[in-house]
């Protein structure tokens, strides 16, 4: 692995503890104005100080993130579908030249193992890895789960392993029972997505359990930006991932930030 690739990976997975807190705000690429992200800049700005990296599309990056911000960017480079159609029919939507121009630390693409366009997405992954290798840019493969697939260790283990075999440098997947076996059979670092919004305590438990069972961190979106206190949630998640805080202690961080937010609102 060359210096540039290693340096970019170190911007995402922190060299101090080998852990990563990635803020996922790329949902609009197929969901449109997702709840909590209607005004991307407003949602993103307060969270940036607590994110090791941010995952988003070039459209939101250009319009809603200050170029002077030092946050490492994981650029979503797959898409071409919407929630109204077959989601697996994705292609690569950003050229490598534009990814370089945007100074990204990694490129992210979804694979849809077992779905109608499985092959297309897997070949896209392999091509993206080829381009990434030429320019020293790592690739994050997202194991998207088709509607007929079970989110179990067998299926997610299959998807993660295929992603790694095709050359992905990091894999993002979902937490599941027997998660440890998914991590063990994937030779590259695994991070988890948060999934649909759940009560804050459950989302923190998910982050904790995943980190305990081998995930290097989280790429969490809705459970942060759809929370009633997004800053409290990202700080709590951060404490779990980087400080190995218990769920109970992390929940206190969220609650205390929420209390502060309520007090400030009452004063204004
Ligand atoms: C989904 O396709 C996107 O890649 C999201 O970034 C990913 O699902 C993580 O976000 P969430 O925590 O909301 O699931």
Topology:
Elements lengths: L2 H10 L7 E5 L3 H4 L8 H5 L8 E4 L1 H7 L8 E4 L1 E2 L11 E2 L3 H6 L4 E6 L6 H18 L3 E5 L9 H13 L4 E4 L5 H6 L5 E4 L6 H13 L4 E4 L1 H4 L4 H14 L3 H21 L1
Parallel strand pairs: 1-2, 1-10, 2-3, 3-6, 6-7, 7-8, 8-9, 9-10
Antiparallel strand pairs: 4-5
Helix pairs in contact: 9-11, 9-12, 11-12
This protein binds ribose-5-phosphate.
Ribose-5-phosphate (R5P) binds next to strand 10 and helix 10.
Structure described in brief:
The protein has 268 residues and is an alpha/beta fold. The protein is 45% helix and 15% strand. Strand 2, helix 4 and strand 3 form a beta-alpha-beta unit.
Please state the structural category: alpha/beta
Largest sheet: 8 strands, parallel, barrel
CATH topology: TIM Barrel
Number of helices: 12
- Helix content range of the residues, please? 40-55%
Distance between the termini: 53 Å
Which molecules other than protein and nucleic acid are bound?
Answer: ribose-5-phosphate
The H/E string reads HEHHEHEEEHEHEHEHEHEHHH
Overall pLDDT score = 96
The total domain count is 1
Stretches with pLDDT under 50, minimum 5 residues: none
Give the C-alpha Rg. Answer: 18 Å
